[in-house]
Amino acid sequence: MIIKQNEKKTISFLQKNKIANLKQIAGCLNSSIRTAQRKLINWKAYRSYNKNSSYFTLPAIPNFDQNGLWKYKGIFFSKHGNLKQTVIYLVCNSLKGLNANEIGDILGISSRSFISYFNNIKDLQREKYEGIIIYFSTESTIYKKQITQRQQTVQGKLLELPPNDLCIAVLVDLIKHPGGSVNACWQRLQRQGVKIKMDNIKKLLSYHGIKKKVPGMR
Question: For residue 65, is pLDDT > 70?
């Protein structure tokens, strides 16, 4: 009877606070850590994929987003399972594969904190594409769709770029004036008689992956 009361108290505690760590749950149950772990398994509780996987929540509590993720007070949960299972899901269900920063942005955590663990996962394959490591599904049908979409995206970006002589002029100017803004670069080029739109400068820098290195870009 006391055990049942403690279980009800623990469930009520979780429903009120939404999340709790293992020590808090064991305290509510008035049990050992091992017993608390067994209860969480029986309740099919979700375990956080950040904060050292030390927080739990009940299945009915999370309001998962379109990626199957729920973030509450800096604690992140996934309906797909642990971090590894979640990364596999995100990559295999992406339109054109994902790079480490894209995965990190979706998860809400730094790619440096996890990406080294995912270099040899049988469900994922790594390819260097346009100088960046991209993670694709190993399932052939999905992979073909992903690689085709990524190629089309890159080709689309290439079509948006200015002619080679203008590209060279922009890159030379930025080498001479590191740390300058896009607007300053554009003004210098205008004074030199180089006719280029500011939007084309932004597209060029974005294509070469140096967008964030230039202040003033949004």
Answer: yes
